[in-house]
Design goal:
This protein is α+β, with helices and mostly antiparallel strands. It has a domain of 49 residues: GMP Synthetase, Chain A, domain 3, CATH 3.30.300.90. It has a three-stranded mixed sheet. A hairpin with a 6-residue loop joins strand 1 and strand 2. The radius of gyration is 12 Å and the shape is globular. This is BolA family transcriptional regulator.
Length: 83
């Protein structure tokens, strides 16, 4: 089982200058909601942004640690507009 803190740590290490929020959606430790804000997403389509997150999580997604992942990605500018 993986914790929200571990997911957050992985993403912050793998995606430069990112701000990450992770929540356990069900309390069961395998359904997570993730918000990632990063300048790395500038100029990338939503699918490309999500691919960067999936790549960063790599082996975690390949195993049984995460059953469901609700993912929202933003550039810093888009995040400011979403607040």
């Amino acid at each position: 089982m993986i914790t929200p803190e571990e997911i957050k740590g992985i993403l912050e290490r793998e995606i430069p200058d990112s701000v990450v929020e992770v929540g356990d959606m069900t309390g069961g430790g395998d359904h997570f909601q993730v918000i990632v804000v990063s300048p790395e997403f500038e100029g990338k389509r939503l699918v490309q942004q999500h691919q960067l997150v999936y790549k960063a999580l790599g082996k975690v997604l390949d195993g049984d640690a995460i059953h469901a992942l609700a993912l929202r990605t933003y550039t810093p500018e888009a995040w400011q507009g979403a607040l």
